[in-house]
Design a protein that fits this description.
This protein is of the alpha/beta class and 303 residues long. The protein has helices spanning 36-40, 85-93, 115-121, 138-145, 156-162, 179-191, 209-217, 219-223, 236-242, 265-273, 298-302; strands spanning 47-56, 59-69, 74-78, 100-105, 108-109, 123-126, 197-201, 228-232, 245-250, 253-258.
Length: 303
């Protein structure tokens, strides 16, 4: 497989001085290859999560997760099923109440703020599975998103301009749309709320690759309006294509945190699956590692 598009041929050529040694807690397993302020050029995060712990009954879904998302970033959370990715986004959006830690927007604690109030302040989510009102039309679903809208550049008319097919089918019920069309409506519904931080949960789930490419191809136009994006994605290659910062979760813990250009495919694989990166397996600086997704690394192919 060729290198992820948009990263160039040398995206796996940089090896951090402290390669990951395996899975651990937020304190033990995290590898900060490059700080977010360096990547974004600013020192104050727009969204910050501090030592967030979340339980589902007796199950600890997130264990002391921390992150800082700076204005204009595309911050990607990757990990396998059950890693805690969607729980993290839902907690930031206010749909889960944490058992510990805090969520801050522009330095203000919003941990106990209701979901609709967070939306009014600028935290808006496109949920996994779209969650549209199937019996409502395309335009009616967009109007739902405008209920708690902030003032800003995004209107229903502008969403129609972004998704060219949508205007002519605005009266059609969303249950009659394809998966990719439904995902576009879900994104439009979030945009008309004029978010400051857009939470995107598994955009590619259940969609054909060509549809995924089209949807992600619109991300630059969305970012051009000043949005910041926190993205959850199982498709690692897709996350690496678009992200300015990367964080990997495994069983509710952080196993890797880095700028994508500063890690190798082997290091991402080790963090994703909780493997120990064996001595000598990482390529030397300037040497390319083989692409990770889809498929496998040299070591896994040899086994």
């Amino acid at each position: 497989m060729s290198e992820p598009e948009g990263r160039g041929a040398d995206w796996t050529a940089f090896v951090p001085a402290d390669p990951p040694q395996g899975r651990g807690t937020s304190d033990e397993g995290r590898r900060r290859v490059k700080s977010a302020p360096e990547a974004s050029g600013t020192t104050e995060p727009l969204l910050e999560v501090r030592e967030l712990t979340v339980h589902h009954g007796q199950l600890r879904a997130l264990d002391r997760i921390s992150l800082r998302v700076f204005p204009g970033e595309v911050y990607a959370i990757i990990g396998a099923n059950g890693a805690g990715k969607s729980t993290l986004l839902r907690t930031i959006a206010g749909l889960h109440r944490p058992t510990g830690g805090s969520v801050l927007l522009d330095g203000q604690d919003v941990t106990r703020v209701r979901p609709e109030r967070r939306a009014a302040r600028g935290i808006v989510m496109v949920p996994e599975g779209r969650r549209l009102f199937g019996s409502l039309s395309v335009e009616e679903n967009l109007q739902v998103g405008a209920t708690y809208a902030r003032k800003g550049p995004w209107t229903i008319e502008r969403v129609y301009e972004l998704f060219g097919w949508m205007r002519d089918r605005r009266t059609q019920r969303t249950e009659q749309l394809s998966g990719g069309e439904q995902q576009s409506v879900a994104i439009g519904r979030a945009l008309v709320a004029n978010p400051r931080v857009l939470l995107l949960d598994e955009l590619s789930l259940g969609l054909a690759p060509i549809v995924v490419q089209r949807i992600y191809g619109m991300l630059p136009q969305i970012l051009a309006t000043g949005l910041t994006v926190l993205l959850v994605e199982q498709d690692v290659s897709q996350a690496l294509r678009v992200a300015s910062h990367l964080q990997c979760l495994l069983e509710g813990h952080t196993t890797l945190e880095a700028v994508p250009s500063a890690v190798t495919a082997d290091q991402v694989e080790a963090a994703y699956f909780g493997l120990n990166l064996q001595a000598g397996s990482a390529p030397a600086a300037g040497e390319r590692s083989e692409p990770l997704w889809p498929g496998s690394t040299r070591s896994s192919r040899a086994s």
